Amino acid sequence: LKTALKILNVTPEETIVIGDGITDITTAKELNVKAIGLTTGISTKEQLIKHGANHIIASITELVPFIEKINNN
After folding, report:
1. Which residue of 1, 9, 39, 46 has the fewest C-beta atoms within 10 A of its own C-beta?
2. What is the CATH number of the domain that holds 32?
3. Domain residue limits at 12
4. Contact at 8 Å (CB) between 65 and 46?
5. pTM for this structure?
6. How many domains does the chain have?
7. What is the spatial distance between Cα 40 and Cα 30, in angstroms, rounded to a whole number?
8. Three-class SS of residue 1?
């Protein structure tokens, strides 16, 4: 993730990680990137929250409306 941010020349503040595993969330948090936990994978909602997910979505179909909401705020 750190390499991707550098190659794409984006800051952590401009980035969102969507992940269904604890490693996805902890990697994002280590780099100060917002993390969205997706509960359709291997980790539970509670586990994702415990490891620092900023938000939780239950389906990938919720992603676009969620990002639109963030951009409008």
Report:
1. 9
2. 3.40.50.1000
3. 2-60
4. no
5. 0.87
6. 1
7. 23
8. coil
